[in-house]
């Protein structure tokens, strides 16, 4: 592990996942591919350096205020923060005679859409450079998987986007990847709170405010939002 961290590389054997498709419900048709949930199994040894890196990077990000305080997913002690925060804000607005609108966004296959080049640029902007940055580059490069089905293994496939499903670092990297989303939302005057890839956007306003629809549409159509969440 020390050699991996000091050299800025991670063994290729740690980056090979085995995908096992599991039927989502017993009542579903097993002949249809969409009825299966792919479960990714990574080498258990790979999680040892991941935990070390995740702990140190998380401490660094917290000390430097780099993580979005409105992102409650993957963070200790904040499981209920998102729900309580949004509920209290809406109740307060109602008590003040304001109307409110709530928009719920759920990214499809969010972890699979992470662009490696954009993520590495974000890491640099957060102050993660040198050997640590090289380690993350090595971690993301060459990730591969095989599908296990009925006792047989498929050919090996290389992943060019996304963070590893079932990994220790995947959730943290996704949280870092989407930090700029909050800035886009605030630019349009909306409030928000996130839990992993679920984003709750809300806006409280005077009942006679005729600009609400246009403001929401502008936020949802913002090119920056599309780049941040779907690249």
Folded structure, characterized:
The protein has nine helices and eight strands. The protein is of the alpha+beta class and 231 residues long. The strands form two sheets. Strands 1, 2, 4, 5 and 6 form a five-stranded mixed sheet that branches. Strands 3-8-7 form a three-stranded antiparallel sheet, with helices on both faces. Strand 7 (191-195) and strand 8 (198-205) form a beta hairpin. Helix 7 (180-187) runs antiparallel to helix 9 (223-230). It is globular and about 60 Å long. The two termini are 32 Å apart. InterPro entries: DNA/RNA_pol_sf, RT_dom. This is Reverse transcriptase domain-containing protein.
SSE blueprint and pairings:
Elements: H1 2-7, E1 16-23, E2 36-41, H2 47-63, H3 81-95, E3 99-106, H4 116-125, H5 130-140, E4 144-149, E5 152-153, E6 157-158, H6 170-177, H7 180-187, E7 191-195, E8 198-205, H8 212-221, H9 223-230
Parallel strand pairs: 1-4
Antiparallel strand pairs: 1-2, 3-8, 4-5, 4-6, 7-8
Helix pairs in contact: 4-5, 7-9
């Amino acid at each position: 592990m020390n050699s991996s961290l000091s050299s800025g590389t991670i063994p290729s054997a740690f980056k090979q996942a085995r995908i096992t498709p599991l039927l989502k419900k017993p009542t579903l048709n097993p002949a249809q591919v969409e009825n299966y949930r792919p479960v990714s199994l990574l080498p258990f040894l790979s999680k040892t350096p991941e935990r070390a890196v995740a702990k140190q990077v998380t401490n660094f990000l917290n000390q430097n205020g780099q993580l979005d305080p409105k992102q409650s997913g993957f963070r200790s002690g904040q499981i209920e923060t998102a729900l309580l925060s949004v509920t209290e804000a809406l109740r307060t607005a109602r008590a003040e005679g304001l109307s409110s609108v709530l928009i719920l966004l759920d990214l499809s296959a969010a972890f699979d859409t992470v662009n490696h080049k954009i993520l590495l640029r974000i890491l640099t902007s957060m102050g993660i450079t040198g050997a640590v940055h090289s380690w993350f580059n090595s971690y993301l490069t060459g990730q591969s998987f095989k599908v296990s089905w009925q006792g047989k293994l498929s050919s090996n496939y290389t992943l060019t986007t996304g963070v590893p499903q079932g990994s220790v670092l995947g959730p943290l990297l996704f949280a870092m990847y989407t930090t700029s989303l909050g800035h886009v939302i605030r630019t349009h005057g909306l409030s928000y709170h996130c839990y992993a890839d679920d984003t709750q956007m809300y806006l409280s306003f005077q009942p006679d405010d005729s600009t609400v629809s246009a403001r929401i549409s502008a936020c949802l159509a913002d090119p920056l939002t599309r780049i941040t969440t779907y690249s």
